[in-house]
């Protein structure tokens, strides 16, 4: 590239602006297009799937360039931000018509869009959160004081701004030998799922590597150390308490400085900072959220089949985001939980109130994002129209609460804001609503930023401003005169095809085809030549054009001024609008929980400070719904009773497909629903508050990190054992299955003993396993109890009854399940033969292997026991089952069923033994 190619005034201006934003793709405004040049063009063109071209085509020093129309820019900007790029938007900050001579139009960067600071929120899914996070790291100390970390998170598309401080002594999860960030902080970042993380410049390289290792591809941005110490914006931040020295406040200052630097318009009405503490909510790590399918299913990582999808019957985007937040942060305070339950219960019991409330909420659009867009320079009249529609709905919400039982309604409306605000009504903004009603037409248009032409006007209602009406009337009369002039000139000239045309640059002109040029009157002045026609003007047309164009331009300028005044008025009311949006979100989430409870006949659980967990006839909230939609048989409910004082650990054995995994997840989901403040699918439930839910479920690997399935399983188990407390709920499904039989059994046995014997780690635990030998733990560990899911065999078929009964199971029925899955009959028959050999103490092929000695690979020894007759084995199993019976809890039908099953097994074993003898 030669110096001459870059020496033009326009390229010099571009390079000067680019030098101030070297790490961003510069969108340089030229008329109705944003142009990109040089490296920016070569980078952006393939990402946006647009044509890469050049200035001065054919020349050896041609400059690479590409461009996009202004009206289509927002989608392209979002695309680049989602790919991890920064976009600097350079606008023309003066009207080109006001620029004289050869001076360039002045241009400035008005906004920088980053992965964590999106531009226009238009088009975003209402449930999507776009999070920017700043981390404040402690200075290393040797005095033994607890280390503190600060975290602040901002969703600029909604104005949601939160900060917290993590004290390792309180939350646990100390950093490893080579790590700077504690596990608790990594888990919180995983829960937030930020698009961009700010870290101090001094720790940038090490933190970036650690964050990418823990969270996957994520944009990490270096933040100057000074950004954490003081606000450097030069602007006021009303209501922002950012003068403290705690780590959470310092992280919030870094976010505020970053926002002011990149989107200065947002500083005029800054979001309100809220504080939160991790110790106030249930900790849900990434593995638990994934295993329980709270937000994403395991099949395609979509929303269907998740707990959130089952709960979300919200009427607006505000409530959908609020409900998702509640599910991500279940409460730990019984008082707060009870307050939320009170609100849900009041709506469950009042169908009319709930219906009218949901109807009113349905009229509220995404008020938070509308406000975020309204304060942007690119706001359009349609945005204020959406704001007006939302404000119209607020009085209907208030009326719904007031009409249902006035006494109760009054109590709700007067409830102090210090509580959870169960049914606090939003405050209507009648003055702002009246202003927007008077000023805007019924259907305001969407106008591209800086566009020119007729569509730019006409969105201010007639009668709102007399001076605007006068200008419009003047322009209208001029256009009427011009329309009449067309007929007059046709008659005068004899040119029947003569037309009056308007061009936004050249103005009004008489258009005449070239075949009629001989008839053109002498006073016509040629104005423009086109392929098939020529355009002319006259002195009279120019005079009227001047009056019409002048009036139209003045009217358009006045409309823009009026619109800006409306936008400023909305911005001034941002605090009240955010408060109204907050209450609508809460009401919508509560009404959704109530609607779900009413439709599904869920009950209100008791949540208290006890350590027990008692669920009667609990059901899986998602699977029960899926079965209902499929028209399948009803879900089989089961009971649960856990307590650190005993029974603390329920050890589940038995067949595949019998319902163990469903039961494990069902208990965890019921606990989370209860602490969310929701009703639950059960006949009754009493939940002692849980501080954390741990899950080790399913098989997965991380081959990209060099971790096998078994390594992932052991890492998750290690994290559980290092952080578990007496108040935790632990869900373990098949510990140790990824290695040899002896190794796996040994690990599973030791984990169960650890959870039982370790003081402070006696968590309520559900432990499912196919190692039937573990049932012996109940003989030496008093707080371990055995259970299994009942099955029936009929004509070599396995019937799963899905009912949890006491005692351990002796078989897993794996071959029967394999047959159901469709394995070839030849494989199934061979597997049966091998199983018979192993049960009789021999390896396949008749090789004798008596006793419990370890096999060559250590895998099959537990199956090689001294041979026992079929009848003797059946009698032993029957006696063991009899010892495990809880006669006090059995119904007469249960007893008869058990007797019939035992008799059938003994008769079948006797027949098998007789057959062997005769053979």
How would you describe this protein?
Among the domains are: 110 residues, DNA repair protein MutS, domain I (MutS, DNA mismatch repair protein, domain I), CATH 3.40.1170.10; 98 residues, MutS, DNA mismatch repair protein, Chain A, domain 3 (Orthogonal Bundle), CATH 1.10.1420.10; 214 residues, P-loop containing nucleotide triphosphate hydrolases (Rossmann fold); 49 residues. The protein is built from 28 helices and 28 strands. With 919 residues, it is of the alpha/beta class. It has a six-stranded mixed β-sheet, sandwiched between helices. A six-stranded mixed β-sheet has the order 11-10-7-8-9-12. It starts with 8 loop residues before the first helix and ends with a helix. Strand 1 and strand 2 form a beta hairpin.
How would you sum up this structure in a few lines?
With 919 residues, this protein is α/β, with parallel strands linked by helices. It is built from 28 helices and 28 strands.
Strand content: 15-25%
Question: How does the major sheet shape up?
Answer: 6 strands, mixed
How much helix, percentage-wise, in residues?
40-55%
Question: How many strand segments?
Answer: 28
CATH class assignment of the domain at 601-814: Alpha Beta
- Whole-angstrom Rg: 36 Å
CATH H level, superfamily name of the domain at 601-814: P-loop containing nucleotide triphosphate hydrolases
Shape: elongated
Strand order of the largest sheet: 3-4-2-1-5-6
User: N-to-C terminal Cα separation, in Å?
Assistant: 95 Å
Task: List the main descriptive attributes of the protein structure presented here.
single chain, 919 residues, alpha/beta, MutS, DNA mismatch repair protein, domain I, MutS, DNA mismatch repair protein, Chain A, domain 3, Rossmann fold, 6-stranded mixed beta sheet, 28 helices, elongated
